[in-house]
Design a protein that fits this description.
- It is a single chain.
- By secondary structure, the protein is of the alpha/beta class.
- It has a single domain, classed as Alpha-Beta Barrel (TIM Barrel), CATH 3.20.20.
- Helix content is 44%, strand content 13%.
- It has an eight-stranded parallel sheet, covered by helices on one side. Strands 5-7 form a two-stranded antiparallel sheet.
- α3 links the parallel β1 and β2.
- The protein is globular and about 70 Å long.
- The structure holds L-rhamnitol and zinc ion.
- The site of L-rhamnitol has 11 residues, from loops.
Amino acid sequence: MDRYEQARELYAGYGIDTEKALKVLAGIPISLHCWQADDIKGFSADSSLSGGIQVTGNYPGAARTPEELLCDYRKAFSMLAGKKKINIHASYAVQKNGVKKDRDGISFEDFEIWTDFAGEYGCGIDFNPTFFSHPLVKDNLTLSSPDESVRKFWVDHGKACIKIAQYFAEKTGTESVVNFWMPDGFKDVPADRRAPREIMMRSLDEILACGYDKTQVFPTLESKVFGIGLESCTVGSSEFSLCYAASRGIVPLMDNGHYHPTESVADKIPTLLLFFDRIALHITRSIRWDSDHVVTFDDETRAIAEQICNDEAYKRIFIALDYFDASINRIAAWVSGYRNLQKALLAGLLMPGKQMLEYQNNADFTRLFMLREELKTLPFSDVWNRFCEENSVVSDKYLYGEVKKYEDEILSKRV
Ligand code: RNT
Ligand code: ZN
């Protein structure tokens, strides 16, 4: 009997259907963020990276042009199983014939390479207005700026992005998430913590009033605790974002790097699902701070994935990756993080949820505790390998070789 068949029987002994898990996993869409491939530079090069985020490392081979980024995406997709989406920022607009539109004037025509790519792969597109790396981020504020011309510029940017997302959704026939993350904040203690939030609230209201199809376009609002150089106050805090999303009927987005280190996004997921139809996630790995390291198959990711899988919550969650490490091969970072999240999801799907709940309800916590530990050493890798095989992607053993070959043939020539 082959290894997978043995594993299948072992899991079946716990009431776990590995076949079903493999099928479900292949259907969970994960949005792959374009910005890992080029250190969030984008194509408009309006200014260097700002907004309190930072990419560190200088590993050679970053994508420098739209063509290079697409080439990298193709390579990454060839090593990834399951349903994929691409996740792009407004700063990845490709403007033709030397026309330079500013961010308040972009439109779907500037994203043709992305819609073509999505068409080729039959995947959806998620979108992000870019409220950073631009000279009109004035005094670290965008939508909450007291300067009316600045605020208006960013409101128009937000509206333009919702229209573009609408186009993506229509063109791809797939729901499009349009994620609002504004870095707005203060390095030192502000005089007034209410006023900027009131302005941001008004700006978001104006943007959302632009009209869009609520069954296809899903504006999300991402909260944050602090950014570099914005340590004292973040306008789009957790409370602001949750209350705003709840009151306006949009989707809250939690990035697990955006909370205090002992807070658990895994614990927040089921809570939010009681109050929202849909929620969105940015899966990342923070080390000591919002450092956006590559996602690994670690306890935090597994705890999040367990909640995503519990009660089929994945049907109501928009899942995206969000990290940027320039200290290692960027394609390796991309595909490892993606596959690690999938492993965590698979581990979540391979849990006997009903049985565990019964133990909990009977206050049989000893049994629950011991079962959790027991599950950890079941032959998970045989099921994972089967997933790769079934979906014709390289197994973990050959992943490095695959990436290295691409580095030697393509990335190393980018000098
Ligand atoms: C920043 C947020 C945000 C960005 C991307 C590039 O802290 O996590 O989601 O990482 O928009
Ligand atoms: Zn994020």
